[in-house]
Design a protein that fits this description.
about 170 residues, alpha/beta, Immunoglobulin-like
Length: about 170
């Protein structure tokens, strides 16, 4: 008599379900890895300013200068426009802050002035007085500063401003 050498506990195997090809598992893992990297990349891009291009505005004068400042929701991230405000030393500046975004924003200046929280479409004037020092301003709502809602207020001397304007002509 011939002995059967196959294991007794072997169950019948269905065709197709026997085992998935290894390449499928590798492809799925690779696709998930690419998706995770894409999500991380978009988040990092947004937090670094996204498609934001830096805009600046210069103000000077003996009378009060009113500057429009927009709080906006950018394509990716958030923004304050202009990003940089160059002020001739001693100019009296009033910011006309307008929330052009789709969510609440505010603007606080490290010199102490601050708007209330503005709903979309609302505006408020922020009197900075005579500007003699560099200041920074930002939205104080959680993570908005990190997402790009900042404004640099830079003081320039009148002679430097005049020289720069002369060279630009």
């Amino acid at each position: 008599m011939t002995a059967d050498r196959s294991p007794a506990s072997t169950a019948p195997v269905k065709e197709g379900a026997a085992k998935r090809p290894r390449w499928r598992r590798v492809a799925i893992a690779g696709a998930l890895g690419v998706l995770v990297l894409a999500i991380v990349g978009v988040a990092a891009f947004g937090l670094s300013g996204g498609f934001d291009k830096e805009t600046s505005q210069r103000v000077s004068g003996t009378r009060t200068q009113v500057v429009s400042v927009a709080l906006v929701d950018a394509v990716v991230g958030l923004d304050v426009t202009p990003d940089v405000l160059k002020v001739v030393r001693g100019t009296h500046v009033v910011l006309n802050v307008v929330n052009e975004g789709d969510e609440d924003h505010d603007l606080a200046v490290d010199g102490g002035a601050r708007t209330s929280t503005l709903s979309p479409g609302q505006s408020e004037r922020l009197d900075l007085g005579r500007v003699v020092d560099d200041w920074a301003a930002w939205c104080t709502l959680p993570d908005h500063k990190l997402a790009g809602m900042t404004l640099d207020i830079q003081v320039v001397d009148p002679s430097a401003a005049l020289t720069q304007q002369t060279h630009a002509i």
